[in-house]
Structure formats: C-alpha cells, structure tokens
C-alpha cells in the first residue's frame, strides 16, 4: 500500500524496565471523577461519568521540556491514573473489566482553563481546551500484574517541589473497572486505547519555567518542565 503523504509516526508510551513501547491508538479522559474536584469546579458530584478525548500524539515523555501552549494564559495541571487497554471489547461486564487492561501509569491532563470556561459557557465542545499539542505528559506504563489492584493508593502532583494535588485512588467515584466497563458501552474499546481516569482536587495554574512532577503509589512518576520562554 502507498500513501499520498507520509503517514504519521506511531504515538507510543514507554514501558517501565523494558525497551518495548505501548502503541497508543486513542486517549479517552473521564471528567469529574473525584468528589472534591467536582465541588471545587462548581459541579454536581451525582452526575454520571462523561468523556472527552485527546489525540494520540498529545503524549509527552517524562523528562521532556515543553513550550507553554499558545492561545492561553491559564494553563492548569491535572494528575490522573492512566489505564492502558490490551484487549478490546464492547459492553464489557464490570467483573471482567480489568482483564482488558494491559497496564497502568501516571498522566497529567494539561488544560487551557480559560478556553474551557468559554466553551462551557457557550455549550461548545472542550476539544481546544483539552486536546491541544503535547497536552498529555505520561510516565512509563507498568503491566497490570505489577501495578496492583488500583483501588487505593496515594495520587499527587507537585509544582517546583510544592504539593498542589493529593488524594487517593479510593476516592474515585467511578473505579478503574467502572471506567472501562462504562466506556465500553459507548465505544468499542481497542488495544492501544488509553483511559485517563480523572483528577483529585487542587488543580491550579502553572507558568513558564515551572516543573511538574506527579505520581501514584506503586507506579513510575512523570515529570515535565514548561520552557522558560
């Protein structure tokens, strides 16, 4: 097969302790999955889960320096548990959901909060607030057999060494298994899909020159720096 233009390189995420990489197909993100974060954003914690997406090539390797995104003056950090789908399926039973997960990692959902606020007010999609270039810094993935049950564990984010976000996976309204099962009723999940499962309270702005580091107990942390200029 030939193409009229060169195809884009395959987006991928590092695998901890291996030279192999996890190929990324799609990135789904769960909105409002920690009660305190829902309240700090002025929303109703009783709402069912909803999803937005990021392009696969939004992934950024841990240790990278990235430019402050264009078209915003209010860039926010959101630390999240990331699930890597290894076996696809539709209408996956809750009891079987984690069997479809290859591994897990730590991600940062970078958000152009000012653009998101405009979109919310106008009832428009969040694509340009969430799915912009290099908006998904991500640490190395760990196979599920090494990652634990992912039902509890400290989740945190620091900026320049100062704690900004801290919580526990046990505080997720919709568990990792819930997210996989529910999302599979809306789309057919496929190998290579990533699910970013929501963020705890404490989201805030970051600026040029700031260093963000985020982690979850038992998983490799992710660290990125915003370029000074």
Features of the shown structure:
229 residues, five-stranded mixed β-sheet, 5 helices, Fumarylacetoacetate hydrolase, domain 2, alpha+beta, 18 strands, Fumarylacetoacetase_C_sf, six-stranded mixed β-sheet, 14% helix
What would you note in describing this structure?
- Helices cover 14% and strands 32% of the residues.
- It is α+β, with helices and mostly antiparallel strands and 229 residues long.
- The protein has one domain (12-226): Fumarylacetoacetate hydrolase, domain 2 (Alpha-Beta Complex), CATH 3.90.850.
- The strands form five sheets. A six-stranded mixed sheet has the order 4-3-15-8-9-12.
- A hairpin with a 5-residue loop joins strand 17 and strand 18 (222-226).
- The longest helix is centred in the middle third of the chain and has 10 residues, at 113-122.
- The mean pLDDT is 95.
- One of its GO terms (molecular function) is metal ion binding.
- It comes from Litoreibacter ascidiaceicola.
- Residues 27-223 form the Fumarylacetoacetase-like C-terminal domain.
- Keywords: Hydrolase, Metal-binding, Pyruvate.
Question: What's this entry about, in short?
Answer:
It is built from five helices and 18 strands. By secondary structure, the protein is α+β, with helices and mostly antiparallel strands. This is Fumarylpyruvate hydrolase.
């Amino acid at each position: 097969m030939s193409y009229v233009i060169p195809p884009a390189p395959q987006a991928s995420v590092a695998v901890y302790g291996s030279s192999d990489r996890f190929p990324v197909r799609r990135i789904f993100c769960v909105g409002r999955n920690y009660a305190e974060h829902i309240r700090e954003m002025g929303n109703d914690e009783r709402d069912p889960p909803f999803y937005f997406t990021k392009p696969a090539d939004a992934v950024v390797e841990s240790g990278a320096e990235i430019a402050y995104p264009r078209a915003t003056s209010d860039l926010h950090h959101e630390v999240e548990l990331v699930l890597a789908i290894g076996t696809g399926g539709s209408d996956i039973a809750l009891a079987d959901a984690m069997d479809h997960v290859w591994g897990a990692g730590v991600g940062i959902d970078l958000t152009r909060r000012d653009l998101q606020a405009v979109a919310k007010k106008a009832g428009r999609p969040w694509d340009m607030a969430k799915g912009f270039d290099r908006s998904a810094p991500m640490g190395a993935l760990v196979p599920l057999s090494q990652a634990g049950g992912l039902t509890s564990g400290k989740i945190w984010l620091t900026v320049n060494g100062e704690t900004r976000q801290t919580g526990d996976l046990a505080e997720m309204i919709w568990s990792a298994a819930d997210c996989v099962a529910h999302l599979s009723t809306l789309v057919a999940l496929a190998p290579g899909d990533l699910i970013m499962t929501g963020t705890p309270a404490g989201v805030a702005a970051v600026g040029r020159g700031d260093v963000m580091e985020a982690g979850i107990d038992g998983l490799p942390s992710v660290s990125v720096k915003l370029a000074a200029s």
